Amino acid sequence: MTVTIYHNPKCGTSRNTLALIRNAGIEPTVIEYLTHPPSRESLIALIARAGLSVRDALREKGTPYAELGLDDPGLSDDQLIDAMLAHPILINRPFVDAPKGARLCRPSELVLDILPEAQKGPFTKEDGEVVIDEKGKRVR
């Protein structure tokens, strides 16, 4: 199984997650989900594999979440999935699917728990936070 990232290149967390995957010597399958959203079946499976509820996989900030009334607790999972497929920006990011599981990688270092390979060297996030030291070990 390969590592797949559902990526938004405009998102710093997504860029950091992709960089951590590559820092482990892995070239993942990169799916820019805003232009190539997953199928209904793939999205449902990814959310389940990550151990999340559909509502937990929804992104509110910078999306039409409020305008669409998605805060209504009476909406079914199917209705929420429909909204996510119609408006992929509603899919929280970045999701990573790897041999050891799937995660919504917020924060980006959550990806470290599911990668099949160790980090190969130091890594510092775009904001200057050191995540991996010069020996390839997690700082926190």
TrEMBL record:
<dbReference type="InterPro" id="IPR036249">
    <property type="entry name" value="Thioredoxin-like_sf"/>
</dbReference>
<dbReference type="InterPro" id="IPR006660">
    <property type="entry name" value="Arsenate_reductase-like"/>
</dbReference>
<keyword id="KW-0059">Arsenical resistance</keyword>
<dbReference type="Pfam" id="PF03960">
    <property type="entry name" value="ArsC"/>
</dbReference>
<dbReference type="GO" id="GO:0008794">
    <property type="term" value="F:arsenate reductase (glutaredoxin) activity"/>
</dbReference>
<comment type="similarity">
    <text>Belongs to the ArsC family.</text>
</comment>
<dbReference type="InterPro" id="IPR006659">
    <property type="entry name" value="Arsenate_reductase"/>
</dbReference>
<protein>
    <recommendedName>
        <fullName>Arsenate reductase</fullName>
        <ecNumber>1.20.4.1</ecNumber>
    </recommendedName>
</protein>
<dbReference type="GO" id="GO:0046685">
    <property type="term" value="P:response to arsenic-containing substance"/>
</dbReference>
<keyword id="KW-0560">Oxidoreductase</keyword>
